[in-house]
Amino acid sequence: MPEPLNIAVDAMGGDNGPSVIVHGVIEFFRDCSKSTTDNVAILLVGDRDVLSRLLSRSKGAKLPITIQHASQVIMMDDHPAEALKSKPDSSMVVMAGLQKKGLVQAMVSPGNTGAMMAASLFALGRIEGVPRPAIAATIPTQNNPVVVLDVGANIGCNVKQLSQFALMGEAYSKCVFGIENPRISLLNVGQERTKGPLVIQEVYGMLEDSKLNFLGNIEGDGILKGEADVVVCDGFDGNILLKTFESIADLVGGSLYLEMKRHWASRAGYLLMRHSFSKLWERLDSAEYGGAPLLGLNGVAIVAHGSSTAKAIKNAIVAACNFYRSGVSDRIRQEIKGTIT
What we know:
It is built from 14 helices and eleven strands. The chain is an alpha/beta fold. The protein has an eleven-stranded mixed beta sheet, with helices on both faces. β5 and β6 (about 145-150) form a beta hairpin. It is globular, with a radius of gyration of 20 Å. The two termini are about 40 Å apart. The model has no long low-confidence stretch (mean pLDDT about 90).
């Protein structure tokens, strides 16, 4: 039996309200395998009255779910630093404090990403030697999933940050996806080492001289082809990349629906191929990965989409379980000791 794992979930964050989050927590226990849910307890953080009613309606009272009251909520448009000061009893701040005290071992939030980053840093701190944590997103490819970092936590990254993103991404790929020697690439506008901003060219040289399995630059079209296991980039570029890829499923699904409406033969073809299409949607659906971890923290923080569905919340909790149990943070500590430079 795995060791006890307590996970705090920010029930008030996100765009879809606490009912969707409660539903996702219940789905975690009802839909996931026993090997995943065994010895896991969830602490919902938010308005006690609201959450108690939702749990009662959803028949989740018998599940290992408890409630920690928080009287305030950090909104999506709140300034992160100001919100932490003005809303000390917000669900996000309370949740981070619980992990600092050791009452939970991981936390999940679909709320304000900047505030989640700030609250996590303030409560948990960084792994020694890590200048800035990075959000590591998972994107499906023709082969293994690719880890892309950073996808929004850091804008205007310097050489040291990008170099350490490569180290942290390698550790994450090894521990969570079991890839023995992850292929590392730098996102750029061309494969030549002289392409792109000077900071990227300098990072190229550092990674080339490192112990990492560095393949060089990768262009956007190479990512979905599975030409790398870890893609390193600035948070601005990474976020645009992530949002573009997440729209692919909607584009493919919408186009298929329009074609089916046009002709009976298309509808018949869909019926014959629906199992294959179902598998395709599953691979493309961002909700399958649920959330992205903040790498480089002294703790476990999973950032979920603001528009997360119940399915996405369920899988964000699964991501928290996998992250904690795989020992990614310990692996990063070991890797940072033998820095690239």
